[in-house]
Amino acid sequence: MENEVASKNFIEQIIDKDIEEGHCRKVVTRFPPEPNGYLHIGHAKSILLNYGLAQEYNGQFNLRFDDTNPTKEKEEFVDSIKADVEWLGAKWHGDVLFASDYFPEMYEAAVKLIKKGKAYVCDLSADEIRQYRGTLTEPGKESPYRNRSVEENLQLFGDMKDGKFGDGEKVLRAKIDMASPNINMRDPVIYRVAHISHHRTGDEWCIYPMYDFAHPIEDAIEGVSHSICTLEFEDHRPLYDWVVRELEYEYPPKQIEFAKLYLNNVVTGKRYIKKLVEDGIVDGWDDPRLVSIAALRRRGFTPESIKMFVEMVGVTKAQGSVEYPMLEYCIREDLKLKVKRMMAVLDPVKVIIDNYEEGKVEYMEVPNNQENPELGTRMVPFTRELFIEREDFMEEPPKKYFRLFPGNEVRLMNAYFVTCVDFKKDEDGRITEIHCTYDPATRGGNFTERKVKGTIHWVSATEGVKVKARLYENIVDEEKGVYNQEDGSINVNPDSLKVVDCVVEPELAKAEKEDKFQFVRNGYFCADIKDSSEGNPVFNRIVSLKSSFKLPTN
Ligand code: ATP
Ligand code: MG
Fold first, then answer.
1. Ligand 1 site: residues with CB under 6 angstroms?
2. Which of 230, 231, 257, 271 gets mutated to test ligand 1 (max ligand atoms within 8 A of its CB)?
3. Pick the CATH number of 102-208 from 3.20.20.70, 3.30.2090.10, 2.40.30.30, 3.90.800.10
4. Distance in Å, CA 494 to ligand 2 centroid
5. Does residue 549 have a pLDDT over 80?
6. What is the per-residue pLDDT across 404-456, written as a single tens digit (0 to 9) for each?
7. Angle 41-56/75-88 helices, nearest 10 degrees?
8. DSSP track, 4-16
9. Superfamily of segment(s) 344-457
């Protein structure tokens, strides 16, 4: 193992230093989603990072809804977000928190700034404020309302709160520095008038705080020690620090930024996922082709696999993008020893064993997972008529094709050796049935006196059960990339979903929602949480068995 200290990420190093220097009483982190959409894999990173740090330092992790903007928020999302965080295994401290519960404290904080001469009511319109703000190369211009007296500001701010002004008529601004090289510091708006009902506070307020003002206060009220956010807030940090300094918190929270998680050729942003949903390209927020947490769960990813993935990606300051196959690697690793390996035929063609007794059902004892004997064994019915994969038979095989073809002998996995003696085709040349003979001496498949090169899986045609399986490809057309350069739309792959009628071992028909299996040679599958019913599971392919991903070797 590497040296413990050296392997700590940059956030842990900051926290260690803060503790050492006595700036941190207790590590308190939070995950602060806006309830305006479902969470995705990027949020999972943030959740697990914040929760992980709280655990590591014996601290506290809060789940706080950042619901200060009533225009976009919905109660529906509160429940889904809670469910997702819970499913990921991140346990939040106490009750779920809501930023809107702090509206009274935020109002008082604004009053405090006014009294200190650090905030003023401004009558400029939104357009004028923008014009006055200046540019990256030019300083801003001071508002003519900048030097209102404290008394007048207090009066006007109270009037804003009391509903005496219409939307946009007046705002409260922090009085900082119109010449600051950081535009965020040029007297940012901290409160606006908006006569909109809020999903929790109703019509109690007609003024709402802006994010950059509200967020540090929320953190401070909760005793958050390290407020971890993504890089786009880096330029806002001076304002964050200004707010907590001017409000004179005894233990000011500290903002730390890290790079967002992006996956190559995958739609991650909330806004874009929403668009796919609204345009009907996918079947809801939890469509298994998406990377919302609900979708990943539905597809069959486990919390453990997501955790492994997030840890592999690591925490950095430098923006990068990782490959989706890395996520696939993690779920394969997680399921490898955990799930049963069963036989399912996705594209069935019939095999008839001419010399096998008609009507006989023979049970083969099969290990559930050759690499994990703890999973036990099961009995799999073998009969005269079977199904195998269509691609496991060829009339005229190329060289190095070791599966079934006329005259060739193969091993039926866990059963007998069979030799192809004949086959039938329809008018279109499609194989309709394959005839074989079996050798009773080869029972169990471990027969060693004669060698065969091919082993294929099978399911009894009479005892097996027909079910549907959904095979997925990337929803994005990978050749074109995610976004259309011209209009910013998403380049959609029209073949991202294929539903197949397959035949599975009887035991698979008993699968309960969310049960996961390996279908030998075909990948890992999960019984769909929504569309499965008793005795009739619908399987989602989580991932195939083949991998293009190579573990980094350092
Ligand atoms: P999106 O960018 O998808 O619209 P968002 O940032 O608007 O998401 P919020 O609800 O505001 O979503 O985010 C909650 C938390 O999740 C924030 O702390 C945010 O920085 C973090 N977060 C959002 N996207 C990612 C990502 N891709 N990687 C890591 N953390 C993220
Ligand atoms: Mg956001």
1. 32-34, 42-43, 45-46, 229-230, 260-261, 268-271
2. 230
3. 3.90.800.10
4. 30
5. no
6. 999 999 999 999 999 999 999 999 999 999 999 999 999 987 788 899 999 99
7. 60
8. TTTTS-HHHHHHH
9. Ribosomal Protein L25; Chain P (2.40.240.10)
